[in-house]
Every structure is written in C-alpha cells, then in structure tokens.
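#onboarding

Welcome to the new folks! Below is a worked example of what a typical request in this channel looks like: someone posts a single protein sequence, and someone else replies with the predicted structure as tokens. Don't worry about understanding the tokens yet, we'll cover that in week two.

Example request:
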Amino acid sequence: MVDRRVCFAVLRPALSRSVSRAICSAHVAGGLVFPWQALKRWNPHSFPARRLAKKTTGPWTAYYTSEQREVILHLLNTATPSELAGVKLLRGRKSLSIVEYRTKHGPFKTLESLVNVPLLKHKSAVTVFQSILNPVKKEKKVKISLAKFIRPEVDRSWLEDAGSIVSVVCGTNKIAWSHVNRGMMVLDWQQVDCPNFFRGTYLASAYLSDVSEVVSLLPSTDFYIIEKPSISVQNTALFPIMAHMRTVEAMLFALLEPRNTPPDSNIPPRVLNMMRTGVGRHFGLMVGESRTSGAQTVRQLMTDSVTQKIPRVNFPPELLLKYRDHFQMGGRREGEELCDALLQAVAFYELLSESSS
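Example response:
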C-alpha cells in the first residue's frame, strides 16, 4: 500500500498548474491511480488557485452582455491596424498581430480567443475590452485665432492680400525687425542699437531721435506688426520697463501710420499690434504666464531652411552666414529681439493661414 501523503507530494505541482485537468483525468503514476481523497487538501484560496483563476478565460462571457460582446468582436474583426492602434494597449505590433491572426484563423468568435494572439495575455485583453467599450475621447487641439491677437481689428481680406509684412520688436536698448513676404522668404532681418533708451531723464526728444532713425531704415511693406508686450500693470517693479515699451510703441505708431484726412474707412491701418503671448503660445514658448527664449526655435528654422526640401521659412544665404553663430546656447544672448521679430512674422502668416482654412 502506497502512502497517500507521498502520492500527493508527487502530484501536487499538477494541481497547482491545472486543477481542472487533475479532476477530469485519472493520473496514473507507476501503476497507481490518483487518490481522489487528496482533493480535500487543495485550498481554493491559495496563491496557485488565485493565479489559476486569473488565467481562466471562460468566465469572460458572464462579465459582458451580448450587445457588449458584439461590439467588441465587431471591432476586432473589422478594424484596420490604424483603427486598432487607437485602442489602449494595441499600438504598434499588437494591432498588426490581431489582423494577421484573423487573416490566418478567421474572425474572432469568442472573447476568449483574443488571448491566442501573440503578445496579448489575459490582463491585456481585459484592458482592451474596456477600452473598446469606453473609448477615451481625444481633446481637440484649440486653434489660436489670429484675430484674437491682432489690434486694432481689421478685415481679414486686407491681411490675406498683404504681399509682405515687417515685424518690429522693441527691447530695452535696441529695436529689431524682420521683413518677410507671404512666401515665407526672409527679405531683411536686422537690429539697431538705441543708445538713448533708459538713459538719463528719459527725454522725449532723445527717444524720438532713436526711434526716428530706426523708422528711416525700415523697408517699405504692406503692414508693420509691432509687438505688444505682456507686462502686467500690477507688477510695479517692472513699471519703468512697461512705460519705456509703451513710449516706443506709441512713437512707432505715430511715425509709421500715415494720416488720413478725413479718415477713410476703406483704407486699412498700416500699423498693427500683435500680442506677445499669442506668438509664445503658437511656438510653445509659454511657461505659465511667462514666455521663454525663442533662440532654439530660430536655430531650428535656420537649420531646416538648408536641410529640408520644403522648409517652414526660407533664408537668403547671406543672412544664414551672418547669424549662423548668433543664437548659441549658454552665455549672454544678444539676439533675443531678432528672434522675437522673426517668430512674430512667422506666427502672423501661419495663424492667418490656419484661421483661413
């Protein structure tokens, strides 16, 4: 007579792997029949039993209604790889594996058959089912409206008819501009030092002298787009800078805008403001309410103009040569106004194109 404890010790691994297989067949080892009394010692709450329950796929049918099963199977049997990739956990190779499996073996007839697909296990399959039944709605990217960041408001047709613009940005001691046509070709791009800015008693005549010199150098164009700073009035520490910016802005408007006597509503304004924050959001340069440097973005635009077949912006060779080392990372940056002037011009055309389409 063989000791029952020895028999159970030999056959216990079989119970852990698949108790259903142990129950349905009489195991014979060395001519001895498996003693059914040993089942009394199997604990259904033990770790092997819990693991077995997780691997069992049969109960899935009870978890979903017939309508839910129909929805899941319909998508798995008809969706293209790109459509399957929109389901959680089915990106990449898994979506292709599903298409290959159903092509070879026919459509899925049960939910349990999904685990036969390579790379898909029980846990993954449950997540896939839930994602199909409860798809996550993708938030639409909110387009930035050009009209929201242009002042004063003008008829869109006037902007669309513009052959070129000059983007002007004022700094604390210099003014930069970028002349760009509607074909995204940079025609002119430079900056001028203004020695009277933030000097002495801020004499209006001294400011006027510096601003007038800049205006005399600006090329002729359809519109002059002047950057509107985003300095808060509540920030008293920056009040001198805000007063400086507003003063230069007002002088540029006065010197560049021709006087119509009497005012003619059929003639568009020649000088416009563009909000600095709008340009920052367009290029992803905003951190909270503050805007970071656009030097890296400008360097990428310059690189793409040489390496890309259809670049975002086209630069003449002489400007690429002139500014190739002007926007390096680290150290003191001298070209922030140049960067801002170019990015403002690019944002103007791109936002105009997006809002028109």
